[in-house]
Amino acid sequence: MQATTVRAGAAVSAAPASAAGRVNRVRRGDVTTRHRWAFLLPGAVLMGVLGLFPLFQLVWMSLHDVTQATINAPTWAWAGLHNFAAGFTSGNSWPALGRTLVVVLVVTVLGMAAGFAAAVALRTSGRWSGFLLGLMVFVWALPPVVNGSVWKFLLGDDGLVNTVLHGLGVSQPLPFLYDPTWSLFSVAFVGAIAVIPFNALVYRAALLAIEPEVFEAASLDGASRWGEVRHVMIPSVRATTAVLLVLTIVYAFRSFDFIYVMTYGGPGTATNTLPFLGFLQAFAQYDFGLGAATSVLAVILVLVLAVVYARSIRKEEKD
Amino acid sequence: MKIRHLASLAAVAVGALALTACSGGGPAASSGGASGGGDTLTVWHYFTDPQQVKLMDEYKTKFETDHQGAKVDNVFVPYDQLNSKLISSAGAGKGPDVVVFNGADAATLTLGGVLAPMDKYWDSFADKDKFPEGTTQVINGKLYAAQGYVNVLGLWYNKDILDKIGVQPPTTMDELEADMAKAKAAGFGGITLSGLPNSQGEWQAYPWLTEAGFSYQKPDASALHDGLNRIKKWVDNGWLPQQAATWDQTVPFQQFAAGKFAFAENGNWQQGTAKADAKFEYGVVPLPVGSEGKVYLGGEGEGIGAFSKNQDLAWEYLKDTYYDKDGELLAPKLVGSLPARTDAAQDSSVTSNALLKAFADTIAKSGATYPDGVVPPKAVADVQLAGGQAFSAVIGGQKSPADAANGAITSLKGLLG
Amino acid sequence: MNLKAGPVAVIVKAFFTALYGVPLLWIVLTSLKKSSDVVGGSLLFRPTTAAYARSFNGDLFTALGQSVTIAVGTTALVLLVGVPAAYGLARTRGWVASLGLGLLVVLQMLPQTAQVIPLFSLLGQWRLLDNVGGVILADAALLAPFATLLLRPFFRSVPSALEEAGAIDGAGVVRTFWSIVLPVARNGVLTIASITFLLAWGEFLYAVRFFLTPSNYPLSALLSQQVSAFGIDWPGLMALAVLTSLPILAVFTATYRLLRDGLTVGAVK
User: Fewest Cβ atoms closer than 10 Å to its Cβ: which of A265, B127, C104, C182?
Assistant: First the structure.
């Protein structure tokens, strides 16, 4: 294919797309751009109908008084911002917000760092890499009720983790699942474990897309392994990092399954994060309006993230 | 080469879509989901335990034998999803003919428009007087469901451990605490229970809290404080594992069945697990909650779906199975539940069973309507959650008994009106 | 390129092998236990395959068929809308791209539980309740934003110069996309396709809510039957989890092979 030579040349730069894109725009950017719009249509239709409608209804619900008694009624009574205010005055929303941020921080830092580290380690071919990647993906794909239950057993007083710690000389079992602070970190930790294989898989695909010539150039310059990681791999997967970061943060923000399986928000309310609080309000208290308001609150926080991401994309284009 | 891969992927994709489109009207669209009229009754339930499923099957057989031409379709819905699935189905004007649901959720389902009132059938039901108070679900003055059987909590004990520490099964709170102390000293755990911060925790907390004088009638912070303080003391003394704060009702019994604990607060439905898993001698006594303490009468309610096209037949089904004496006697036989009807409860098959007798005594002595009648229907779910969270917070050490009691009373005052 | 594993890589791999191997080992061991042996977590027990025998019945194969249909259908639909959309977003500039990407992130954030109720009424109106097509539509709507976001960087890293070469040869936009862009981005497309497949395979909430007849349930929903308010059949749950996830391994192995090929594409040509 004649294109290969062009591609090899373009790929030497760490961000080939932007370099070539600039040339492209100068020459005939308008033509290419206009024609690509049509590609967005099928997605816009599917997500517009099946995605925006639920979003709209969620917001609408958060502004109304909706309970199990009225959810099926033709109209709902207007409540304005009452549901939002109720969340804060009841003293539930603020602590839930704080806990959510802890979970997001733990899951994002662990999930991104470990995901990238695993991808770099697994980039090599060989039996072990293949087996380990398969293992990670297999565990990742198990339903949350299974993974959550397993970790619940492993982190219990007589679970494996405490048994090992006991062997290492820790006298008291650590209260992973019932101390208010520990339990929050435990569910965040398990949430991170569940996102690492996914990040590793995507990172690995991105790393494999780096042209071999880039590595050759780097090794000619005498780069160490660490230098390869720092100066070749990290910059090359910047776009993937951005999107994975966004997805990981969003995942952490809506992370709910493991809390449901491992602590049900407990002890007491110690692991009631925003998504779990929203679930409790909508499906345990059947106050759908209040639950929707809590979910909208989380969506608004993520909206900030969405704007930052969209702007970073524009910056990427201007580079 | 690469292009061929992608092309074949795309071909598979399009093929799959076509396949899906074709199967649209196929078996997927058959009956079973909702009331279909005719002589077929759809029954929604959440049972997964083989014995409980068998009970459903027996009821199906019984009704189909007694009513030639009628057909019963038992439909499983996961427990977590049953209520919301019923409510969203009701929004679409759909639903089963018969609903078998957690009795505590009767108010939620009634408000959600899921259940049809049964008064016209019930009023002319010859045996209605055989159903004791607390086994019918009356909401806003109308009867929406009755219970064919009752589940209650009792105090399970490990007889091997009690023999080892030289005590008899406790009959008072003091004895229970003394026994737990001895068990602890002998290297065992005291008691297991569920402190999950939801309705399960509230259901398990209720006997201990009412023992201390708490009631929803007159929610009093100091009584609640006393009750929670006792639980806190159990945790501090190492009698009750702190882990119970996030245990559901299943795990504590499995812990008990593993032989590490002297006691377990758990229900009659655990008889199967005990028989299969416990490698020691065990027994049950009523929870030692004195004359003040109350134990909820739990179990499943059975009602008629609001969107059933076959309400008459649905009533016939209930009358022939859950509300029938012979039908009710299947429940103790298969799943160890207690028949609701007084005549069935007096049957020798029930009274001769030592385990069942302890639960039956509990009902007679401390049985209480679940949920408490003073809680307004629309606040039931909130009250259960608030109670469960307070209980869990104390066990897990998130809140002191005083803080948890005050917080719970504040939210209860708002909810109880 | 340095493909030999260094000492650091070995340590990292050993760490992850333990982190994911131990839970899996625990799952497999539990599936081979009697329920009375589960609590206590001892390694000494007499293995039994009873839980597997219990899981193997007619329902399993019906559910397997449903799972395959749902996962394949969802993956196909997601790729059908997600691949062009990701490419379009990678090549579109200005506010459309920003708005599109921002919306995708927000859609990604909607809790699934909050989407059940509106989707139920939509599917009801379209007469797609209790229909595998309805579940596929819902699953696709759930996963498409995510897949599109993930695919975009892969298309962006396709050099525009390549496309221009195609255009100079006189190929139309669609042909350029199909024969030049897509093959270059295939690693990404395959990875995202397999991830979509795995997520659709495990999706449980929509399946339970939108199928009104349990005989239509896929494997993921069957799993939920092991857990109830009255008890959890741990060996049964773990055995079924292992069984229902085995097909995942097959799909993964297949894509893993294709991905490794992808590594050498640039070098060989």
Answer: B127
Residues A107 and A174: beta-carbon distance below 8 Å = no
* Chain C residues within an 8 Å CB radius of B30: 213
Record: contact C228-B47, CB cut-off 8 A: yes
Contacts of A251 (CB under 8 A, 6+ apart): A107, A111, A191, A195
Q: Do B23 and C213 touch (CB under 8 A)?
A: no
pLDDT tens-place values along chain A, 319 residues long: 333 333 333 333 333 333 333 334 434 444 455 557 788 889 989 988 898 999 999 999 999 999 989 988 888 999 999 999 999 988 899 999 999 999 999 999 999 999 999 999 988 777 898 899 889 989 998 888 889 989 998 999 988 899 999 999 998 899 999 999 999 999 999 999 999 999 998 899 888 888 778 888 888 888 788 888 888 899 989 888 998 999 999 999 988 889 998 999 989 999 999 999 999 999 899 999 999 999 999 999 888 888 888 888 777 766 5
Residue C28 lies in a domain: no
Q: How far apart are CA B221 and CA A302, in angstroms?
A: 40
Report the C-alpha gap between C226 and B75 in whole angstroms: 15
Mutate to test the interface with A, among B79, B115, B235, B243 (most CBs of A within 10 A): B243
For residue B415, give the chain A residue with the closest CA.
Answer: A285
Domain membership of residue C120 as a residue range: 61-262
Helix (H, G, I), strand (E, B) or coil at A200: helix
- The total number of structural domains that make up chain C: 1
C258: in domain: yes
CATH number, domain of C124, equals: 1.10.3720.10
Query: Which domains occur in chain B, in start order?
Result: 40-146+300-336 (3.40.190.10), 153-295+373-416 (3.40.190.10)
C20, part of any domain = no
Among B247, B392, B403, B412, the strongest candidate for a mutation testing the A interface, having the largest count of A CBs within 10 A, is: B392
Residue C22 belongs to a domain: no
